[in-house]
């Protein structure tokens, strides 16, 4: 059979079907079950989809696509606006879970011991990122390091730390930085430890990775970066109230590795109520 004959036969078959279906319109099929099913599914699907958008942030529906958050400026603005209403107190820093503060601090002290000392990180200077009023600095870092630098985006927290909360420890603070972490460029080769507690959650994946890359350059020999943060049980979840991202540990580890850092140890904070989100500590350099 020649190609031209084959094409003519296919063309004829196509035309026959076309003529047949030209007679079929909505009037002929609107009473069929398939037509009604199609209409119902389409209507119910969009109603359900709109409901989900209202109830659950889109980043939760697509758990692994949090690398880009629409309206990054709004994402950061909401966080800053949230903390304007947080009191400069231990209760404010712990989000009404002040009863677990001592457990948290003891877990941090024990984890830090693994990486500081002879043959490990030095004890000259540490940086507390997202320091708030200095709860972690006072309870974990000042007893170990000769001097401290502290960073937070809320001026009220830093003022309270210096004037009230830190007491005599305030004399050993070299610098207070009133900065958003995504914009902060730390000095090179300055710190033995960079501590990031409940602040990585307020950065987009891209900004967190880029800050970790900058932080890596600011470490002294054998220095370490420690992240302590809420970790999702699966995927990641965007909290629209305080504008934070709770990531699964695997997602956090992926960001750390893309920043060119090696993970030294990972440990779950024990002793917290099961009702709250798991908290993990990650050491890297």
UniProtKB/TrEMBL annotation:
One term of GO molecular function: protein methyltransferase activity
Pfam families: Methyltransf_PK
GO BP term (any one): methylation
EC number: 2.1.1.299
Keywords: Methyltransferase, S-adenosyl-L-methionine, Transferase
CDD domains on file: AdoMet_MTases
InterPro entries: MeTrfase_NTM1, SAM-dependent_MTases_sf
Similarity annotation: Belongs to the methyltransferase superfamily. NTM1 family.
PANTHER family (alphabetical): AD-003 - RELATED, N-TERMINAL XAA-PRO-LYS N-METHYLTRANSFERASE 2
Name listed for the protein in its UniProt record: Methyltransferase like 11B
């Amino acid at each position: 059979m020649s190609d031209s004959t084959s094409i003519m036969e296919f063309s004829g078959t196509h035309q026959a079907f076309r003529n047949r279906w030209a007679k079929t319109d909505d009037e002929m099929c609107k009473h069929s079950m398939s037509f009604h099913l199609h209409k119902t599914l389409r209507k119910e699907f969009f109603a359900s989809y709109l409901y989900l958008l209202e109830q659950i942030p889109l980043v939760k529906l697509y758990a692994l696509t949090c690398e880009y958050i629409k309206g990054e400026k709004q994402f950061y603005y909401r966080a800053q606006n949230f903390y304007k209403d947080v009191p400069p107190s231990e209760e404010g820093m712990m989000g009404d879970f002040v009863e677990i503060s001592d457990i948290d601090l003891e877990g941090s002290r024990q984890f830090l011991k693994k990486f500081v000392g002879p043959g490990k990180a030095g004890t000259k200077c540490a940086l507390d990122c997202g320091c708030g009023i200095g709860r972690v600095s006072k309870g974990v870092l000042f007893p170990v390091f000769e001097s401290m630098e502290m960073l937070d985006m809320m001026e009220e927290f830093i003022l309270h730390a210096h004037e009230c909360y830190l007491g005599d420890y305030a004399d050993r603070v070299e610098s207070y930085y009133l900065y958003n972490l995504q914009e902060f460029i730390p000095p090179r080769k300055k710190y033995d430890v960079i501590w990031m507690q409940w602040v990585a959650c307020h950065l987009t994946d891209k900004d967190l990775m880029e800050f970790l890359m900058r932080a890596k350059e600011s470490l002294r020999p054998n220095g370490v970066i420690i992240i302590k943060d809420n970790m999702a049980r699966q995927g990641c979840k965007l909290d629209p109230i305080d504008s934070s991202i709770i990531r699964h540990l695997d997602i956090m580890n992926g960001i750390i590795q893309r920043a060119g850092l090696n993970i030294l140890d990972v440990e779950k904070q024990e002793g917290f109520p099961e009702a709250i989100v798991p908290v993990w500590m990650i050491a890297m350099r």
